[in-house]
Design goal:
Shape: elongated
Structural class: alpha/beta
Helix content: 25-40%
Number of helices: 9
Largest sheet: 7 strands, parallel
Mean pLDDT: 89
Length: 243
């Protein structure tokens, strides 16, 4: 499970050792010595750094001498998205990957990972920023599925989509204004299914990058479904079509 690492030397050594870290929180204006090396190592490894007032850092981990820096480790190590492709190919299967655009609720992310495991999807991709990471809450909400579903955390969703297209994947996004109802759309073959975050849906650039946008039929007065419920319906339609 994830934990907080406090103190300059512990954080620096965790970075040197390659521990999976979700983010680093550091006091504003801090610099020099170990903190400078921590900043450098974090940037090299694309780990977000959040700068806060010292009083805020004191409240985040009361009673622990943080020396101006805390690191939040991941509940599980992330993979590269290429590893997810390799897993599918090693099984002789068409890749089926789920990408989440700015999913901020850890319970939704955990539920989607749980569904991905049950449906036999090969992995999940999340963005490094403006998205919940693999926290203990996510792991709990996944009912343990986080141990079995590879999760890649990428710096740029748009670039990743383009790379996956080059690998032969068909990119399908979920959108309320989609041109096709999900059960009428072709969801077979190598597939990247892109689901938007709570409330906001897919970003404009991501929509434009999709090969197809599909919608779930909504007959009631509420205009949308919970993100994890919508994802489950779409994921299992892929399963149904794959037979």
């Amino acid at each position: 499970m994830n934990e907080i690492i406090a103190g300059r030397n512990p954080v620096r050594e965790a970075l040197r050792a390659g521990r999976p870290i979700n983010k680093i929180v550091m006091t504003k204006g801090a610099g020099g010595g170990p903190l400078a090396e921590i900043t450098k190592l974090a940037k090299v490894n694309n780990i977000p750094i959040q700068l806060v007032e010292r009083e805020h850092l004191d409240k985040m981990n009361p009673g622990v001498p943080h020396q101006g820096v805390l690191a939040y480790t991941a509940a599980k190590e992330y993979v590269e998205f290429e590893e997810i492709l390799a897993i599918a190919r090693a099984k002789g299967q068409d890749p089926f990957i789920i990408m989440l655009d700015e999913m901020n609720d850890p319970h939704n992310l955990g539920a989607i990972i749980r569904t991905a495991d049950a449906a036999g999807a090969h992995g999940v991709i999340i963005p490094q920023r403006r998205s919940v990471a693999l926290t203990a809450t996510v792991a709990k909400a996944s009912a343990g599925a986080v141990e079995y579903v590879p999760v890649a955390r990428v710096t740029n969703l748009d670039q990743t989509i383009r790379q996956l297209k080059d690998e032969g994947l068909w990119v399908v996004g979920a959108d309320m204004a989609g041109s096709e109802i999900h059960w009428e759309a072709k969801l077979t073959g190598p597939l990247l299914l892109v689901i938007g975050g709570e409330g906001k849906g897919l970003g404009r650039l991501i929509k434009e990058r999709c090969d197809m946008l599909v919608r779930l039929p909504m007959a009631g007065r509420v205009g949308s479904l919970n993100a994890s419920v919508a994802a489950a319906l779409l994921i299992y339609e892929v399963v149904r079509q794959r037979g």
